[in-house]
């Protein structure tokens, strides 16, 4: 895989030419950035792409702060390690953004990944197709990460309401107990699908469930004709994914600007 060529393709298809990620969201191009303004209470808000330099960065940052502040929205500037100018992190911090943990942008060719990794004994995989499934995903997220599924729950429900077949999400169950969950986002018209939310409750980690969830979603990506899978990987999932064949292309850091009066 030509790393630079794939990164360039990812930047163009997923970031610069981004499409709305859910019903009611809109993508706009202004002030040297591409941003999404989500449907109130049910979609992500933030900047996915920027084409800035030292002379334009501060004005562009200020314009985005004004835009989302006028709407009363918290928003995220999704900064990648190769974005310019090089001091963009410092400029965002000076404008009131708070950096969250750094993740690694990993990419793999779908054709090179396993698509049939059975879960460990006693575990069954179940596609998520309705609100009950989303609620079970929320239970896993609470236990695995110690925080609510939050906005993602609203996004999943909105996507299921619009098209029940559009959400490639999966649960791992031990009996009737949800112990792991993950989802995939597809990006029609691009070469990429992306993996999100892979989490396993503590007592079930290290048994191969995560690998089986990756394979489950890889099979769907292959069936739908995607060439690459992309993950924003935490330090916990990165080693597993690299052993499966994913390659690091960059880093990504969420810079969050709280709404007025927010915590």
UniProtKB/TrEMBL annotation:
It comes from the Bacteria. Keywords: Acyltransferase, Transferase. It is an enzyme of class 2 (transferase). The keyword Transferase applies. InterPro entries: Acyl_CoA_acyltransferase, GNAT_dom. GO terms for molecular function: acyltransferase activity. Residues 123-263 form the N-acetyltransferase domain. Its EC number is 2.3.-.-. This is GNAT family N-acetyltransferase.
């Amino acid at each position: 895989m030509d790393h630079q060529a794939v990164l360039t393709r990812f930047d163009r298809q997923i970031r610069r030419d981004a499409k709305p990620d859910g019903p009611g969201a809109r993508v706009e191009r202004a002030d040297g950035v591409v941003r999404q303004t989500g449907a109130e209470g049910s979609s992500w808000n933030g900047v996915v792409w920027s084409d800035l330099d030292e002379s334009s960065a501060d004005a562009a940052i200020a314009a985005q702060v004004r835009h989302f502040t006028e709407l009363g929205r918290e928003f995220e500037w999704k900064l990648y390690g190769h974005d310019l100018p090089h001091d963009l992190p410092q400029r965002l911090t000076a404008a009131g953004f708070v950096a969250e943990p750094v993740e690694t942008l990993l990419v793999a060719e779908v054709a090179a990944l396993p698509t049939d990794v059975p879960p460990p004994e006693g575990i069954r995989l179940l596609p998520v197709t309705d609100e009950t499934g989303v609620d079970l995903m929320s239970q896993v997220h609470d236990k695995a990460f110690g925080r609510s599924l939050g906005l993602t729950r609203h996004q999943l429900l909105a996507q299921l309401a619009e098209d029940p077949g559009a959400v490639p999400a999966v649960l791992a169950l031990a009996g009737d107990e949800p112990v792991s969950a993950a989802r995939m986002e597809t990006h029609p018209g691009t070469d990429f699908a992306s993996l999100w939310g892979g989490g396993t409750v503590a007592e079930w980690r290290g048994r191969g469930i995560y690998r089986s969830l990756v394979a489950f979603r890889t099979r769907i990506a292959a069936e739908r004709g995607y060439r690459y899978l992309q993950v924003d990987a935490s330090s916990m999932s990165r080693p597993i994914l690299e052993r499966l064949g994913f390659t690091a292309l960059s880093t990504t850091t969420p810079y969050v600007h709280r709404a007025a009066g927010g915590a």
